[in-house]
Amino acid sequence: MRASSLSNDKVVDLLNHFFVPVYLSNEDFAKGGCAPAEEKKELQRIFRETLDAKRSAGTVHVYIIAPDGKSFDSMHVANAAKVEKLVPMLEAAVAENKLSAGRALFPPGAQSRKPKTPAEGLVLHLVARNVVKKDGDIVPTHTKLGETRSAGWGSYPSEDWITLTKDDAAKLLPAGRVEKGQTWQPDAAVAARLLTHFYPTTENNDVAKNKIHEQELKATIISIDNGIARAQLTGRLVMDHWFYHKADGNQVTTRLTGYLDFDPATSRIRALRLISEDATYNRRPFGVALREAE
Amino acid sequence: MHRFAAFLAVVVAGPAAAQELDVGRIDKRVADWQPTRVERRFDDIGWAPDLCTALKAGKAHDRPVFLFTHDGRMQVGRC
Asked: Reduced to 3 states, what is the DSSP secondary structure of residue A264?
């Protein structure tokens, strides 16, 4: 829905000028989820009142709630993802409620935000996207968004924010004296926490279900300048990652290339860049780029 | 001849693990693969931070609330 109707100019305009748009993740509202009790109660009320009004309701759904808080309309995501279905729904709500256009009540802004960095820790940002070979290079694919046909897996890139504590980040570095030519293997458990996110856009995003079959990551010091050591990173990953939430045999296979800049005196990482090389998922190409968050 | 020389160079250089680090290529790829402004069109919507805040704002400003419930994390494309 993000790729199609929620990227459509008309929909964006209607939502900003006539509605109060909000989205929520069902995981937060499930038993044990982090949403406050008051929020969970309101969602249950909306769900129940929508059903009482003989309208469609479900977990992946659009709900229009009237200004007095009562159920007004609803639509399953399969329809709401279609521009030609969602626009008339919104326009009907505008007309029936006799709404006048106004400014967006909440300022638009980046929805994917860097989490707080732990004291002396490290936050990494990962992008996974569909790619294609072109003129001997591998380049991103760009789908035209905002149309009904834009909906599809990988229409836009996926992102992950990975947070490492000071101690975990230090485990990626060599122990003891640092010298040019020195090689080591960054801590496998910490490296796995990064590599488990090396998969394309899929419905399943539970990394606990991933199974790493082969994981290699080797670091080699290639320079030490002005107190900063630079290590070349090379490696390989073979990992099972289910597309949906059940075993399907789909597998990520990729080589890894990158570099790591760090201060040996303080064990602080200054830069960490790691990219996939010729990555495939179920034999289809995709790409991953990981870097330290600014 | 040139092709043979290039082939020989690859064979002698060995697999990727032994190749020279090309920081410029890595940085370019990282930069090129970032989400574009167009791919973040969804950020142009003025989303309320949570459901209760949205309902209160709707009541205060006489506007309907548009609520989308989903699995995963739409804001990072993991959904």
From this structure: coil
Please state, for a pLDDT cut of 90, what percent of chain A lies above it: 98
Torsion of CA A273, A274, A277, A280, to 10 degrees: -130
List chain A residues with CB under 8 Å of B38: 142, 145
Question: Does the interface ipTM go beyond 0.85?
Answer: yes
Give yes or no for residue B75 having a pLDDT over 50. Answer: yes
Beta bridge partners of A289: A127, A275
With beta carbons under 8 A apart, name residues in chain B contacting A93. 64
Spatial distance between the Cα atoms of A97 and A234, rounded to a whole number of angstroms: 60
Q: What six digits make up the tokens of B62?
A: 């006489």
pTM over 0.95: no
CB-nearest to A61 from B34, B59, B69 is B69
- Cα–Cα distances (Å) from A51 to A70, A71, B55, in that order, read 12, 9, 19
CB proximity A267 to B under 8 Å: no
SS3 A72: strand
CA distance A94 to A19: 9
Compute CA B30 distance to the chain's CA centroid, rounded to the nearest angstrom. Answer: 10
For A:53-92, CB contacts with B below 8 A are 59-69, 72, 77, 80, 90
**Cβ separation of B67 and A46 shorter than 8 Å?**
yes
Q: How is A60-79 classified by DSSP, letter by letter?
A: SEEEEE-TTS-EEEEEEHHH
**Number of domains, chain B:** 1
Tell me, yes or no, if A104 comes closer than 8 A to chain B by beta carbon.
yes
A212 touches chain B (CB under 8 A): no
What does the pLDDT look like over B8-65, one tens digit per residue?
Answer: 444 444 344 457 999 999 999 999 999 999 999 999 999 999 999 999 999 999 999 9
For residue A68, how many other CB atoms are within 10 A of its CB?
A: 10
Among A23, A160, A287, the residue with its CB nearest the CB of B68 is A23
In this structure, the number of other CB atoms found within 10 A of the CB of residue A56 comes to 14
